[in-house]
Amino acid sequence: xxxxxxxxxxxxxxxxxxxxxxxxxxxxxxxxxxxxxxxxxxxxxxxxxxxxxxxxxxxxxxxxxxxxxxxxxxxxxxxxxxxxxxxxxxxxxxxxxxxxxxxxxxxxxxxxxxxxxxxxxxxxxxxxxxxxxxxxxxxxxxxxxxxxxxxxxxxxxxxxxxxxxxxxxxxxxxxxxxxxxxxxxxxxxxxxxxxxxxxxxxxxxxxxxxxxxxxxxxxxxxxxxxxxxxxxxxxxxxxxxxxxxxxxxxxxxxxxxxxxxxxxxxxxxxxxxxxxxxxxxxxxxxxxxxxxxxxxxxxxxxxxxxxxxxxxxxxxxxxxxxxxxxxxxxxxxxxxxxxxxxxxxxxxxxxxxxxxxxxxxxxxxxxxxxxxxxxxxxxxxxxxxxxxxxxxxxxxxxxxxxxxxxxxxxxxxxxxxxxxxxxxxxxxxxxxxxxxxxxxxxxxxxxxxxxx
Length: 452
Description:
The chain is an alpha/beta fold.
């Protein structure tokens, strides 16, 4: 198969082109111009026609004119936009106390205890929790710990990984593009492409690639401090299966003296519909687990969980403090979000509704050969668009067209993968059967429109 041309590196998938703003309504054009003047060029917008939002509720967003959009993209608000329970918990705590972790408080201890109970393995038995404000900070701290613990500095990631925006995490986030260079101590390995590789070979091939990366790091004097992976390979194209891929990798990494870091910023908090954490589907017992995004349902709270032996020396020798990480209000948001996930049985909901969506999308493949594969688990679904099902050549243009066709129908999804050709469907965990039916109806209409 001839290798297709990728999207321009560094160009955001599903990004708005500011040069096209002249075609927009005057009100939107004025807002975009004001935004550019006040916020500068680094901030990007989604969709050919950006969405202006004024409020949200559950799985819906609303613009200034009251138009309703079905949100099948935003996983940050895992228990729904403006969830009344989380909003009330945040308001009550803000009206009582908001301060840092250097005072004794029950809230952070109660949440840490509850959170650690979800992990199992070594972390569940004797692990510790540490809190930050963002997933980027959590991954930054995790790699600092790994380096301090191992005395090595090499980091291994998947080929299109995204792990954050700090100087350190950006240096091992290849999805940011060539203008954001990787560190010389970073090595990339291919993600387990279940569409183009025999599933039985995925784990062996990935473990072999990691071993080769370790050997190269060792030759260059860096060694391996850690392998870090998003357990659903979100930025690589959403590869939820097979689930025997990561355990062999962890074995290879540990044999070389490195640590296994599970980046659960996107895969965690029951997103898979099968287990609370994505790494649990692979039977891995990580040394460090990082968390973020949906942890506080939109309130900025993130953190990591770590086995005692990794943090022991770091805690003695490195002074670590985060003014806002683990603050009283953040812990209130996180506690209530976790309670809603459990009490409303959102993992079970994700399993049921996600299966319904995947079945519906698979049915559409019969009439639409541009759909090469439907994959995912729970409420994280990828739809790979191809130019030809025989060659499996990626079709980023088709994916972009569908994303924007759905946006015109007020259904919001996005795209991912190296070629930007994988539709990314990642709604709040409260997405219901009726919402799934609307998504499928509009997807079918958009596909039919594309066929002409």
